[in-house]
Amino acid sequence: MGEHMQIVERDGVLVVVCIHCRHAYGPPSRDPKLSSVMRAAPITEVSPLNRYGLVEEVVINQYFCPGCGTMIAANVQRKEDPPYEETRLEL
Q1: What is d(CA 68, CA 74) in angstroms, rounded to the nearest whole number?
Q2: Which end of the chain offers a freer environment for a tag, N or C, measured as fewer CB atoms within 10 Å?
Q3: Number of domains in the chain
Q4: What is the pLDDT of residues 5-27, one digit of tens each?
Q5: What's the CA gap between 25 and 4, in Å, rounded?
Q6: 69 φ/ψ sector (left φ>0, alpha ψ -120 to 50, else beta)
Q7: 90 within a domain of the structure (yes/no)
Q8: Residue at 86 is within a domain
Q9: Collapsing DSSP states into helix, strand and coil, what is residue 85?
Q10: What is the spatial distance between Cα 71 and Cα 38, in angstroms, rounded to a whole number?
């Protein structure tokens, strides 16, 4: 399930885990980003040319594994928008 996560069975229940540290994010039906550590970075951090864009309105939300700090996702979005749910599996 993605580059840094996989689905495993623990005590008869399927869970998404980090492949590096085995941190459990929760069931596959819930986006792992919702159980991660999020950092909002300014868009100018990835390119100085972004200073001509919507710097006060847009951020890069970066999501990290709470166990080992591996970045599992990043989304460019408006500051006030909730996290984009993009990884959910119904098994």
Answers
A1: 17
A2: C
A3: 1
A4: 999 999 999 999 999 999 999 99
A5: 12
A6: left
A7: no
A8: no
A9: coil
A10: 9
